[in-house]
Design goal:
This protein is an alpha+beta fold. The chain has five helices and two strands. Helix 3 packs antiparallel against helix 5. The longest helix is centred in the N-terminal third of the chain and has 17 residues. The radius of gyration is 18 Å and the shape is elongated. The model has no long low-confidence stretch (mean pLDDT 89).
Length: 106
């Protein structure tokens, strides 16, 4: 967090908690229901992934909000993130959840 706050403060608050993401999917479901889709089903697939510092940095570098940063800022951010991960043991464990909404137009 400190690296983002110092180098890319606009990205510092961009991460959503898993519960926020599920709430967002439920709002999408309401919109689908209002548009005449039924039945609507939300399936969630929680999981955990483990990354080395290099793997994590390689992955976040592909996110559009990171990839579109000016080169100097992006390189400093990725270097700072990698250094922080290394200082904290070299591994990042991410809890994630994939959401799938299934719907049929009535």
């Amino acid at each position: 967090d400190a690296v983002y706050a110092a180098i890319a403060p606009d990205l510092a608050e961009g991460a959503k908690a898993m519960s926020e993401a599920i709430d967002e999917q439920r709002r999408h479901m309401d919109s689908l229901r209002d548009a005449g889709f039924t039945p609507i089903e939300l399936r969630t697939y929680p999981g955990t992934a483990t990354y080395t510092a290099r793997e994590w940095v390689d992955m976040i570098a592909t996110h559009s909000n990171h990839a579109t940063l000016p080169d100097e800022q992006r390189h400093a951010l990725l270097r700072g993130v990698a250094d922080t991960i290394t200082q904290l043991g070299g591994i990042v464990t991410e809890e994630a959840c994939v959401a799938l909404i299934l719907a049929t137009r009535a």
